[in-house]
Amino acid sequence: MNRSPDRALRTFDLALTLTWLILLAPFWLVRALLALIGAGRLFDHAHVLGRNRRPFVRLTFAGPLPGRELAALFNILRGDMAIAGPRPLTVAEAAAVPAEANIRFSVPPGLFSPYQVQQRTGIAHDPESELDRRFVENRSVRASWGLSARALVAGLLGGGERPVPPLLDFFGVPIVNTTMDEAVDWIAARASNHPGAARHPSLSKEGNTSDLALGAGEKALLAFVNPDCLNIAYTHDRYRAVLRQAARVLPDGIGVKIGCRMRGVGLAANVNGTDLFPRLCERAARDGFSLFLLGARPGIAELVAENMQARYPGLMIAGIQHGYFGPDEEDAIIARINASGAGVLLVAFGVPRQELWLADHHDALTPPVRMGVGGLFDFYSGRIPRAPLWLREIGLEWVWRLIQEPGRMWRRYILGNPLFLYRVWKQARQEAKAHE
Ligand code: UDP
User: Fold this and answer.
1) CA of 213 to the centre of ligand 1 (A)
2) pLDDT tens digit string along 151-176?
3) Nearest residue to 176 via CA among 219, 234, 220, 222
4) Closest Cα to atom 6 of ligand 1
5) Would you say the C-alpha torsion 390, 99, 90, 76 has a positive or negative sign?
6) To which H or E segment does residue 159 belong?
7) CA distance 113 to 109
8) Closest C-alpha to 319, from 297, 300, 301, 298
9) 349 Cβ inside 6 Å of ligand 1
């Protein structure tokens, strides 16, 4: 079927489009009427390129009201577009597509694209051309069906243009609103000790004079926060203080995205440690800085080192130490970390222990970048399988973790998620009142 899926896909597209047109008839008829009344015309026309770069006119219902995209169903009926496929591009956008990504033009553009789905949940960390290439290579009715289902679910989470402030504030914790690429660049610049590496504009945190917030070439503490961490920070004064003083706090997970949405702002990306780690390894292998893996059960970090070195030849693991040591061993471990010359120290003790430990030993430790990474080593050792991509694309990685370790996770997610949203709502209300 994969060899010539065109006919099956066209049948699938027509069947689904006709079903939607019938089921959604009241909506699109009203939307069409509103377009005529409001804008004096039915459609807006965008000139874009389709399969084999053939130009066509993409339809949207006229006017600014929601439901504009419903008109694209007529493009699908006409055969210009498919339900799922790479995004239709303008001539100027198409000119910027790298030659190796030309395969994207071998299929009709889609109403739903793989990149847009990942963007909705903030996990579009790979280039769009790469996601398009993977989609085209595995194109099938099943893949199209899956992508449209995920697009509909992810659509509920994302959508709508919102301002993207450089810094977010949840319960007094400043979170850098950045992209995965920028975050990796930032770490690499410090880990390789490049003096004068560019600072992200968001880092001008007024009033922060702490020595934990240091510039390029110096010691930087980095933390990732998900709703569970922010719930802990809400009541744990010391942890909150450490996060406030850290060089960077990065947003982890769909909960932060939903929290942003509740506050009327956009999240640039879900810059979680689990997605960042392989990119950091790739960069470390390329730039020549090394990593020290501290934490998790004995034997786990060794497996992580093995797996990542197999994936990224040249990756230097400067040292390994499990996370079940006594206070009497601490000095020797710190001496070993410092002697290793690691550019980045990754500490996996769980939240908030790892951040507090890093703050306690901030001066004694010498690696320029240190970060708390929670259960990361368990994932990359293969001890705990990570949620499949399709679940992550619809923002449900946490359900996977809940199913895997219900005894430990139910409190975090079943109680913690609603509590987090309630606290965000309360903060948003207080801010709105203060502005009145
Ligand atoms: N851990 C450790 N030493 C300890 C307690 C925990 O190294 O004394 C490790 C544990 O083995 C696991 C990680 O810390 O690998 C915590 O994982 P968890 O999934 O709880 O992280 P979080 O969800 O807090 O990010």
Assistant:
1) 25
2) 999 888 766 678 999 999 999 999 99
3) 222
4) 349
5) negative
6) none
7) 8
8) 301
9) yes
Rounded Cα–Cα distance for residues 187 and 185 (Å):
6
CB 166 within 8 A of CB 176: yes
In terms of Cα–Cα distance, which of 302, 278, 282, 279 is closest to 292? 302
The model's pTM: 0.88
Q: Does the C-beta of 397 come closer than 6 Å to ligand 1? A: no
∠ CA 192-127-174, nearest 5°, is 60
Residue 204 has a pLDDT of 40
**Closest residue to atom 20 of ligand 1, CA basis:** 350
- Which amino acid does the sequence have at 390? W
Do strands 290-295 and 248-251 pair parallel, antiparallel, or not at all (unpaired)?
unpaired
Q: Does residue 431 surpass a pLDDT of 60?
A: yes
CA atoms within 13 A on the CB side of 250: 27
Is there an atom of ligand 1 within 6 Å of 350 CB? yes
Closest CA to 317 of 306, 330, 325: 306
CA angle 213, 219, 223 (to 5 degrees): 65
Give the count of beta carbons closer than 10 Å to the beta carbon of residue 318: 20
Angle between helix 254-262 and 141-157 (nearest 10): 40
Residue with tokens 């050792």: 381
| Residues 412, 395: Cα–Cα separation, whole Å | 16
Mutate to test the pocket of ligand 1, among 274, 300, 349 (most ligand atoms within 8 A of CB): 349
Closest ligand 1 atom to 295 CA: 7
Q: What is the pLDDT of residues 26-82, one digit of tens each?
A: 999 999 999 999 999 999 999 999 999 999 999 999 999 999 999 999 999 999 999
Paired with 421 in beta bridges are none
The rounded distance, in Å, linking the Cα atoms of 400 and 409 is: 10
